[in-house]
Amino acid sequence: KSLQEYVNEITSVREVAKKILAARDPEEILSLFFSALTDYLNAGKFQLFLFNDEKMDFAPQRDPDKPGSFCPVIPHEIINWLITEKKSTTIPLKDSELITVVPLMVREELVGILCIDTSQIGDDMNPQFIDILEALASETAAALINVQLYKQLEKQFLDLASTKTYLLNIL
Predict the structure, then answer these.
(1) DSSP state of 66
(2) What sign for the dihedral angle of Cα 79, 82, 84, 89?
(3) 24 phi and psi, to 5 degrees?
(4) DSSP state of 25
(5) CA gyration radius for the chain?
(6) CB count, 10 Å around CB of 123?
(7) What does each of the 171 residues of the chain score in pLDDT, given as a tens digit?
(8) What residues form DSSP beta bridges with 110?
(9) Where are any strands of DSSP class E within 1-160?
(10) At CA 128, angle to CA 125 and CA 133, rounded to 5?
(11) Alpha-carbon torsion angle 158, 148, 21, 68, nearest 10
């Protein structure tokens, strides 16, 4: 790709990242993220796994039957490596498939894992591509955590208001 194509791609992804950070609904955040992956980065097949606190495991966020979706089995060694190293990596799968695994990190915490089938990407698979993926993944992780924290704060506020009303009625 030419330098101008990279600049255009980065500008487009930056605009999407702003929309992702402004979103207040997890579904909207994921929809924007998935659109960016397909529209701007031409990611064919991919899957996002988000950490599920209740199950203490990573849950897929895309319907495996949806076009462009796939559910690779990620060995626990790779997950442990991601938690420790906090870096993207490309790993070979069966039948000459390659997947690039990108961690979604917020303040040193692994929030999710993005897996992209990169066997068909070819020359576009370069350090700049990985940098853009990591930046977009980071913005998405931050937006998801912000929504989660906002909902917790909102619940605490409602609980406090309820307690206040209860106490005022006692007096």
Answers:
(1) S
(2) positive
(3) -120, 15
(4) S
(5) 19
(6) 7
(7) 677 776 777 788 788 889 999 998 888 998 899 888 887 777 778 888 888 776 666 666 666 566 556 666 677 777 778 778 888 888 877 776 778 889 998 888 888 888 888 776 665 667 878 888 898 999 999 999 999 899 889 999 999 999 999 888 887
(8) 105
(9) 46-52, 57-60, 89-92, 98-106, 109-117
(10) 80
(11) -140
| 140: its two tokens | 């998405």
Assess contact for 36 and 48: CB atoms under 8 A. no
- pTM, 2 dp: 0.77
Q: Cβ–Cβ contacts within 10 Å for residue 6, how many?
A: 14
Please give the structure tokens belonging to residue 147: 């929504």
Alpha carbons within 13 A on the beta-carbon side of 68 = 12
Q: Which residue has the tokens 């609904």?
A: 25
3-class DSSP state of 154: helix
